[in-house]
Design goal:
alpha+beta, 22 strands
Length: 698
């Protein structure tokens, strides 16, 4: 250990001395000179310190923080934030973070997906005892391994001083020093650059690699010719990594680049500027990647009906193969050629340019827009997305959260949370598999673009009651006049599509997944009359009869999900009968309509979200918490357990203050936003989106 520290210290001193006086050019970001001009993807985050300082000095932000810690000892002293940021944080805060790829990197990324498909198919072939398929797939894997390389990827991180970069470079120097004696590993030091070249087989012996192939299901025995050939292909996978210091920056590069033409600002597109207001910039030309993934989907579609494909589907517990098709479908609606930038002046402003996008209808010409009532505070519309896209996106976000939580908990050592997250993941993909398939796949046979979402915070639950029997004790509660959000989603049906059957099947699949008992004979959807002048269907509560512990839930007011279909194939899913009546009234002209934003070009999307509406919606949490904790409210409790639990929580002042502060600060943060707005317009195959988030001044 002392030798390691000594080597690190000497490296650090040498690098600091060598970098004295080196600074980036003032007129352009330094990364441009050290990034090749062949980049198809560039993501750039400039110096965040000015934005952090502005935030720290913002009266609105200080109000939110002060409110969050209200009543607690050791609350924040906001007067110290600016000097702390300048003196303690700034030296270690990057002034540039840049991640970039070239076409070769994206090609190899798609080739990695293709190899993953073939690994899965090998597992399926073993499961199906399809030896001919297995041999064929193994040969394809061998060929793909011979072409795959980790190259064309750069990560650049610049700092105000050389110290942080020197620390990283010193660590890299110490790590590579331990590899000098490893046969087949070549470490090259040249100035402030360290290059590591090797093959995977230099770190793992042949037998270890073959056991790994068995574990991954791409080999069936250790002695076969295919296993030997595949093991040799894996052993030859190349590793070529360079770590170098450039002034105050550290650069990590996968794949060697000898001489290159530096990246030019003009090659980043029309949105590129070095404006000090810039928060984030991205430029991308990734259409080739989408084409490659689409090719993988077509290959899977050929295998899917075979015995090997069917076995692979059974083994694919998280439906990764199904997600490939979803990726192609969702990305194909937008573009993988464009640029975006986020700026912070008085407002946060987003600009997105997309090129080569599919044709789209203008919202101003679509019949659906006349059904948007003026009462909707929050309105979001798109002529390119459908209800199916919206549902798919929401499920995908949930699945991404499951995956990211799993990684987060495992990396931080929170084993209990990791285990709970794993149980939830298994439950979701196993028990709700049919529900997921209906939402992510069959819904596209029913819905087509456009879609419009309407919401506000003016809903009311007149009465909510629940009764249940646990451990020989009857318990329950009842609440009156609770504020809740009202939400409606409007879309259009495919020609001849049957929305009613889909909704019944989706609801049944969900309940069958979560319910402990068989609900085959229950009626889950029923006809209701909300005065809409058309057949209307709501979700029945008959499923409660199969719940354990005699649970009964009754609800009256604006939280009764229902759906109906209007002329021109307009489908509406709503939580509020009052909001549904406003939609119908707007459509037939007896009620006020929402005015579409003005646009010189073809309007294909827009959104309006007032901050006060967000505060109104988030404020329902505060109101509900206060309602439950206030012993003077008209909350009705039945059962000793609930009574004691409420009394104990209300008496815990620390819990009470923490929860109230959390809910109040969330509402205050929402109230500090004046509005969030965006518009998307299109000319032929070029789409421009402009959005902003404005803030209330104190």
């Amino acid at each position: 250990m002392p030798v390691l520290l000594r080597r690190l210290g000497l490296t650090l001193l040498a690098v600091l001395a060598a970098n004295r006086g080196l600074n980036a050019a003032a007129d352009e970001p330094e990364f441009l000179q050290h990034t090749p001009n062949d980049r198809s993807l560039v993501m750039y985050v400039p110096d965040p310190l000015p934005h952090l300082l502005r935030t720290a000095k913002s009266p609105g932000f200080q109000r939110v923080i002060t409110r969050m810690f209200q009543g607690q000892l050791g609350g924040p002293d906001t007067s110290t934030w600016e000097p702390t940021l300048n003196n303690s944080v700034a030296p270690y805060l990057p002034t540039e973070i840049v991640f970039s790829l070239n076409d070769q990197a994206t090609t190899n990324l798609s080739r990695l997906f293709r190899m993953m498909l073939h690994v899965g198919l090998c597992n399926g072939a073993i499961e199906a005892d399809a030896s001919e398929d297995f041999d064929k797939l193994q040969q394809v894997l061998i060929a793909e391994m011979g072409q795959w390389k980790l190259e064309g990827i750069d990560l650049w991180v610049n700092f105000r001083t050389p110290l942080p970069a020197a620390l990283v470079f010193g660590q890299a120097n110490s790590l590579t020093a331990s590899l000098f004696d490893v046969e087949g590993v070549e470490v090259t030091h040249q100035g402030q650059s360290i290059r590591l070249q090797s093959q995977l087989g230099n770190f793992y012996d042949e037998q270890t690699l073959q056991f790994l192939l068995l574990e991954f299901g791409v080999a069936t025995d250790l002695d076969s010719e295919g296993t030997s050939a595949l093991g040799a292909a894996v052993a030859k996978l190349e590793i070529d990594v360079t770590v170098q210091m450039v002034g105050n920056a550290i650069q990590l590069r996968f794949g060697h680049v000898a001489d290159f033409e530096p990246l030019r600002g003009e090659s980043l597109g029309e949105l590129w500027t070095t404006d000090p207001r810039l928060v984030f910039f991205a430029s991308y030309r990734m259409q080739g990647f989408l084409d490659s993934v689409a090719g993988i989907v077509k290959e899977w579609e050929k295998w899917e009906p075979t015995a090997t494909g069917k076995a692979t589907t059974q083994l694919d517990e998280e439906d990764l193969l199904g997600d490939l098709s979803n990726i192609v479908r969702m990305v194909g609606q937008s573009s993988l050629d464009g640029a975006s930038r986020l700026e912070w002046n008085d407002d946060l402003e987003l600009v997105l340019h997309e090129y080569g996008v599919p044709t789209a209808d203008s919202l101003t010409t679509l019949p659906i827009t006349k059904f948007v009532p003026a009462t909707g505070d929050i309105v979001m519309a798109s002529s390119t997305y459908s209800v199916a896209d919206q549902w798919n996106s929401q499920l995908t976000q949930f699945e991404d959260r499951l995956a990211s939580n799993s990684m987060k908990y495992e990396l931080t050592g929170r084993l209990q949370q990791a285990e709970m997250n794993e149980q939830m993941t298994v439950f979701y993909y196993q028990k709700l598999r049919k529900f997921r398939q209906l939402v992510k796949e069959r819904s596209y046979d029913v819905f087509r673009a456009p879609t419009i979402t309407i919401a506000d915070g003016r809903g009311t639950i007149r009465r909510l009651s629940a009764r249940f029997h646990i451990d020989e004790e009857s318990s329950g509660f009842a609440m009156n006049d609770l504020s809740v959000p009202r939400v409606a989603v409007m879309g259009r049906l495919q020609e001849g599509a049957d929305a009613e059957t889909l909704m019944k099947d989706v609801w049944r699949a969900f309940l069958e997944g979560v319910m402990p008992e068989d609900i085959t004979g229950l009626q889950l959807v029923e006809s209701v009359d909300y005065g809409l002048g058309c057949p209307t269907f709501a979700f029945s509560g008959e499923w409660q009869e199969e719940l354990p512990n005699d649970v009964r839930i009754m609800l009256e007011g604006d939280m009764m999900p229902h759906y109906f279909t209007l002329p021109d194939g307009l489908f509406v899913l709503s939580s509020s009968s009052e909001l549904s009546r406003a939609i119908v009234a707007a459509g037939n002209g007896s009620g006020e309509r929402f005015d579409l934003p003005a646009s010189e070009d073809q309007l294909v999307g827009f959104g309006v979200i007032p901050g006060i509406s967000l505060a109104q919606i988030s404020g329902t949490l505060t109101s509900l918490f206060d309602y439950v904790m206030d012993e003077q409210s008209d909350l009705e409790l039945e059962g000793e357990t609930l009574q004691i639990g409420r009394t104990m929580l209300a008496a815990d002042q620390n819990f009470y203050d923490t929860m109230q502060g959390l809910f109040s600060s969330l509402t205050l943060a929402c109230a500090s936003v004046d509005s969030i707005q965006w518009q998307s317009t299109q000319q032929t195959d070029r789409r421009v989106t402009k959005g902003s988030m404005s803030f209330n001044t104190p």
